[in-house]
Design brief:
- The chain is of the alpha+beta class and 337 residues long.
- It folds into two domains: 38-150, PurM-like, N-terminal domain (60s Ribosomal Protein L30, Chain: A, 2-Layer Sandwich), CATH 3.30.1330; 158-324, Alpha-Beta Complex (Phosphoribosyl-aminoimidazole Synthetase, Chain A, domain 2).
- The chain contains eight helices and 14 strands.
- The protein has helices at 15-29, 69-82, 103-119, 175-185, 201-211, 225-237, 252-261, 283-291, and strands spanning 41-45, 48-57, 63-64, 67-68, 86-98, 123-132, 140-150, 166-169, 215-219, 240-244, 275-278, 300-306, 313-316, 322-324.
- It has a seven-stranded mixed sheet with strand order 9-11-8-12-10-13-14. Strands 1-2-7-5-6 form a five-stranded mixed sheet, covered by helices on one side. Strands 3-4 form a two-stranded antiparallel sheet.
- It is globular, with a radius of gyration of 19 Å.
Length: 337
C-alpha cells in the first residue's frame, strides 16, 4: 500500500520479516527455487547438486562476548549451507565500511573471520569493498555468500516431515540474543552470558552420515529463535509441533537475563544451534551423534511432529499446562545478527 515504510521490526526475523519477504520480495523475484524459502538454494549442475546461500550482518555491537561480526559472518553462512545438507566449499565477503572506522578494528574483525574460516576448512575466495560517508552506516556491515556440495546421504526438505518425527535442538537456546541485549543494556551477571556463535557443520555432517535419510529437515534458529523456526516448519508442512519445556536446554544466566528484560526465551536468536527433525526410530541415535560432535554436547530431544487440523506450535509447560507458541512479531530484538 502507498505510504507504507520499512520499519526496524521488518528485520527482526518474526512476522514482520515474513510479511516483507512474502508480500514485497517474493512478489518481485518469486520462482520455484526461491519460493521454497530454504536456508540455501539447491541448484543442479550436471551430476552435482550445489547449495548456494547469502546473508547480511549488521550486529551491534561489533564485538560481543563469544564472538564478533567477522566470526558471525563466516559461521552464519557456513551454517545455512550445513543445515541444507551441504558441505561448505567456498565463501565470498563484501564489506560496507563507514568512513572513520579505525583500521585496527577492521583488521581485528577480518582476522577473526579468517581464523574462523580456516578452522572450518573453508576459504573466502572473492569479495567487494565499499566505503560510505560518516553517518551513512554504523561502522561496518558485512555480506557473505557461500556455495557447498550436497552430501551424498542428505535428503532434506519440508515435504519429508511426517507426524511422529522427533525434534532435536543441538544445545542451549537464547545465548546469542541475550548476550547482545545484555551488553547493550550494560547488564552484569554472576556468570557471564556468552554467545553461542559457532559452526554447526560438524553436527549436520555427522548426523547425516550416521542417520542418512532419517534426517528429514534441519534449520538454524537464528532471528526469531526456536519459536520462529518451528512456526516456519508448521506453516510449510501443515502439521503441528509439540515441544516440552522440561527438556529444552537453557543456561540459567541466559534465562535470568531474558526474564529480567521481559523476553520469551523461545523468541531469542541463536547463532550456533541447529533444529533437527528426525524419524522416531533414529532419534536416540541422532541425539547421541549430536552430543559427540563439536558444539553439540547439550543436545536434547524436545518434542515431536503431531497430526493436527491446525498447524500450530504448542508448548507443554513444566506444570503440564499448554500454550501456543506464536511466531514472534520482530520488533523486540533488532540488529541481533
Amino acid at each position: 500500500m502507498s505510504g507504507e515504510i520499512v520499519l526496524l521490526a521488518h528485520g527482526g526475523g518474526g512476522r514482520m520479516t515474513d510479511e516483507l519477504i512474502r508480500n514485497v520480495i517474493l512478489s518481485a523475484f518469486g520462482n520455484f527455487t526461491l519460493n521454497k524459502l530454504t536456508d540455501a538454494a539447491e541448484i543442479q549442475i550436471g551430476q552435482n547438486s550445489i547449495s548456494f546461500t547469502t546473508d547480511g550482518f549488521v550486529v551491534k555491537p561489533l564485538f560481543f562476548n563469544g564472538g564478533d561480526i567477522g566470526k558471525l559472518a563466516i559461521c552464519g553462512t557456513i551454517n545455512d549451507l550445513a543445515v541444507s545438507g551441504a558441505k561448505p566449499i567456498a565463501l565470498s565477503m563484501s564489506l560496507i565500511i563507514e568512513e572513520g572506522l579505525e583500521i585496527e578494528i577492521l583488521r581485528q574483525l577480518l582476522n577473526s573471520a579468517a581464523k574462523t574460516a580456516k578452522e572450518e576448512n573453508v576459504e573466502v575466495v572473492c569479495g567487494d569493498t565499499k566505503v560510505v560517508e560518516a553517518g551513512a552506516a554504523d561502522k561496518l556491515f558485512i555480506n557473505t555468500s557461500g556455495i557447498g556440495l550436497k552430501l551424498p546421504k542428505a535428503n532434506i526438505g519440508f515435504e519429508r516431515i511426517q507426524p511422529g518425527d522427533k525434534i532435536i535442538i543441538s544445545g542451549t537456546i537464547g545465548d546469542h540474543g541475550m548476550t547482545i541485549m545484555s551488553q547493550r543494556e550494560g547488564m552484569k551477571f554472576d556468570t557471564d552470558i556468552q554467545s553461542d556463535c559457532g559452526s554447526v557443520a560438524h553436527i549436520c555432517a555427522n548426523v547425516i552420515e550416521v542417520c542418512g535419510e532419517d534426517i528429514k529437515f534441519m534449520r538454524d534458529p537464528t532471528r526469531g529463535g526456536l519459536a520462529a523456526a518451528l512456526n516456519e516448519i508448521v506453516r510449510q508442512t501443515s502439521s503441528a509441533i509439540e515441544i516440552d519445556e522440561e527438556y529444552i536446554p537453557v543456561n540459567p544466566s541466559t534465562k535470568a537475563a531474558a526474564e529480567m528484560l521481559g523476553f520469551d526465551i523461545l523468541d531469542i536468536a541463536n547463532e550456533g544451534k541447529v533444529v533437527i527433525i528426525v524419524s522416531s526410530d533414529k532419534a536416540e541415535k541422532c541425539l547421541s551423534v549430536c552430543r559427540q560432535s563439536k558444539n553439540g554436547k547439550n543436545a536434547a530431544i524436545i518434542g515431536q511432529v503431531v497430526k493436527s487440523d491446525e498447524p500450530i506450535v504448542e508448548l507443554i509447560t513444566k506444570i503440564k499446562s499448554r500454550r501456543i507458541v506464536q511466531m514472534p512479531y520482530g520488533r523486540e530484538l533488532p540488529r541481533i545478527c
